[in-house]
Specification:
five-stranded mixed beta sheet, about 25% helix, alpha+beta, ten-stranded mixed beta sheet
């Protein structure tokens, strides 16, 4: 009896014109389904991600059945075995062909092939599926296969998993549409991966039929459900479209035409129903957020301006320049929003509104509505320092802020020069005088001006990153960061102030700088500082981590490793390990590595080898050496170095 994962070889003398009917192919598919799915999973490009590779591998195997009687290839099902199985050879050829198609990039002027499209079936909702994790050898093999081209990856898998000879592999590849020269090149490329690792292809790491199940992002699923309900409600409104009404509230400036006279929609766009908080409400409220900001500005009673701002928010016309922080919805407010400001700023009339989730800033020229702009930013959950300031306007490289009513003092300071002191800014009805903004600077960074605000809770630093809401700056251990206004925090931030340029336009909420260790340089020239900066976003995902290195005497530090959407340097995983190639004053090169204080040992692998006890490592090496880093924490857990 044969295992279902072992396909038989066709009998000697089988005809090249041998045909396969649907029943024979279906029998082969059912009998060898796990092996065919494993084959597809290994040939598919790893860049798809483990979850999508699993579903695509199953889809390719299930779509391999012929619609009618078809010619079977003469290629054997396996190089060793019993009687022939033309059905299996046909199904396998189809699986490999479609897996290679899936690895090809989509082209603008060419119709996509079936294998390049996401699978219609099977589909899994609310769960993430992925094979069981293997060991270090399986991970290394997966990385080496990822570096191969699609045909070379298929050649290696057909050799190791299907036990085909090079000639038989060439026939399979040419049967899949690979040119002879490309097939020869694929065989040579596949030979670069050791044949000793063939046995690993049968590992559970690559078994797409024995899976682990985990839930998807539950918070994001809830948000998507709410968005779907909102979209359904909007679709219901669109279904009731009628001819445009003859009347209305009046001229709507740059807004698009009204799409419906829905009572709730009209209430949200009625300037007479805007929420206007009294100036003293924040003094008796337990909250310190945007909901207690009073309505300020000389134009809060300009009904025509407010009507235009609300109408453009709900229906921005084609001439309106609309911008938003990443993953911020554009739609109109669900109910009457709160008015925060209405007035003239530089050469524009500006209206700032808040709907509980977003800040919307409408701006139009003083002499008309042509060239109006609408900007959005998420502020859900903002409180305290995060709700202390909004960008009122930018002009000539300067920025002007509208501050919270509880702010008592404002100033400007250069974050890169901690000893330079603070230049006071005037506050007029909560509006600061202009200060230099680093948000639009594109040349060499030599300074980084930030806003310093003082209130009853202390002093805070905020940085303009090109969005409506400035990012709050903190310093210290991820589990308990402190305000960046203290003397030690300012010294920590100073060499790395210009690294904030990498966070511009990313919807950043806070940036924390953690000086996690210091390292004595091997040539005795002083002590270097290791700092990890982590930028958190308003949307939750999209966080950015930079491991940075600063040598004594240098004006600025250098980012030596960068990662996105990782827990390192954050409250969930307050650990980090990073390294840098450093040249001493004597001309010698070293690999310097440092982990946080919880690291008990550090190892260098790859092009540089060495290890040391504790959280620091210094290994002599050559210029341009490539190395990986591994560390062990006090609790025994292993961590990898950031890259």
């Amino acid at each position: 009896m044969q295992s279902q994962d072992v396909a038989p070889r066709p009998a000697p003398g089988s005809s090249a014109d041998r045909t396969v009917d649907v029943e024979q192919a279906e029998a082969a598919l059912v009998e060898h389904y796990p092996r065919l799915v494993r084959l597809a999973y290994l040939v598919l490009p790893p860049g798809l991600g483990r979850g999508r590779r699993v579903l695509t591998a199953h889809a390719l195997a299930q779509r391999a059945l012929p619609r009618r009687r078809a010619s079977a290839p003469v290629i054997p099902a396996q190089s060793t075995g019993g009687e022939g199985d033309a059905g299996y050879a046909y199904i396998r050829l189809h699986v490999v062909r479609t897996a290679l198609e899936a690895a090809q990039p989509l082209r603008l002027r060419a119709l996509p092939r079936r294998g390049q499209l996401p699978p219609l079936l099977p589909q899994v909702w609310g769960l993430r599926l992925f094979p069981r994790s293997g060991g270090a050898e399986e991970l290394a093999l997966d990385q080496r296969l990822a570096a191969l081209s699609g045909p070379a990856r298929a050649a290696y898998v057909l050799r190791g998993l299907e036990k085909l000879t090079d000639g038989e592999v060439r026939e399979v590849l040419t049967g899949c549409g690979v040119q002879d020269t490309a097939a020869t090149a694929a065989l040579r490329e596949a030979a670069g991966v050791p044949a000793a690792q063939y046995a690993l292809l049968d590992s559970p790491e690559f078994d797409a039929c024995s899976l682990q199940v985990r839930p998807t992002d539950l918070m994001r699923r809830r948000q998507h459900t709410r968005a779907a309900l909102a979209a359904a409600a909007a679709l219901a409104v669109c279904g009731a479209l009628v001819l445009l009404p003859g009347g209305g509230w009046g001229p709507d400036g740059a807004a698009a035409p009204v799409y419906a006279q829905n009572p709730a929609a009209e209430a949200a766009l009625d300037p007479g129903r805007l929420v206007k908080v009294t100036p003293a409400a924040w003094k008796t409220s337990a909250r310190t957020d945007f909901s207690v900001w009073p309505a300020r500005g000389p134009l809060t009673g300009d009904t025509a301006l407010l009507r235009r701002a609300l109408a453009v928010w709900a229906r921005p016309g084609q001439s309106v320049r609309v911008s938003a922080t990443p993953e911020t919805p554009f739609g109109g407010p669900a109910g009457p929003p709160q008015l925060l400001y209405a007035g003239e700023v530089d050469n524009a009339r500006v209206v700032i509104l808040h709907d509980g989730l977003r800040i919307a800033r409408y701006a139009e020229p003083k002499d008309g509505t042509a060239g109006a702009a609408l900007d959005f930013a998420r502020v859900d959950g903002a409180t305290g320092a995060e709700a202390s300031a909004l960008v009122l306007g930018r002009a000539d490289g300067n920025v002007r802020y509208l501050t919270a009513p509880w702010v008592t003092k404002a100033g400007e300071r250069d974050l890169s020069k901690p000893g330079a002191g603070v230049m006071d800014l005037t506050l007029t009805d909560g509006i600061t005088s202009p200060l230099a903004s680093p948000a639009t600077h594109t040349g060499t960074c030599t300074t980084w001006n930030v806003l310093q605000l003082t209130d009853a809770s202390g002093t805070h630093l905020l940085s303009d990153l090109g969005e409506l809401v400035p990012a709050r700056l903190t310093a210290g251990r991820p589990a308990a960061p402190e305000e960046a206004s203290g003397a030690q925090a300012l010294r920590t931030w100073a060499p790395f102030a210009c690294s904030l340029a990498d966070a511009r336009g990313q919807g950043v909420r806070t940036v924390n700088a953690w000086g996690y260790t210091r390292q004595q340089l091997p040539d005795g020239s002083g002590t270097a500082a290791w700092v990890c900066t982590r930028a958190e976003t308003w949307r939750g995902d999209g966080s950015q981590v930079l491991a940075q290195f600063h040598t004594p005497g240098g004006l600025f530090g250098a980012a030596v490793a960068k990662a996105g959407d990782v827990p390192a340097c954050g409250p969930r995983d307050p650990h980090v390990l990073a390294g840098v190639l450093w040249k001493s004053k004597g001309g010698g090169w070293y690999l310097l590595a440092a982990g946080d204080r919880a690291t008990t040992s550090v190892r260098a692998t790859g092009g540089v080898t060495g290890s040391g006890r504790g959280n620091l490592l210094a290994v002599p090496t050559k210029r341009g050496a490539q190395a990986g880093l591994e560390g062990t924490l006090k609790n025994g857990r292993s961590i990898n170095g950031l890259r």
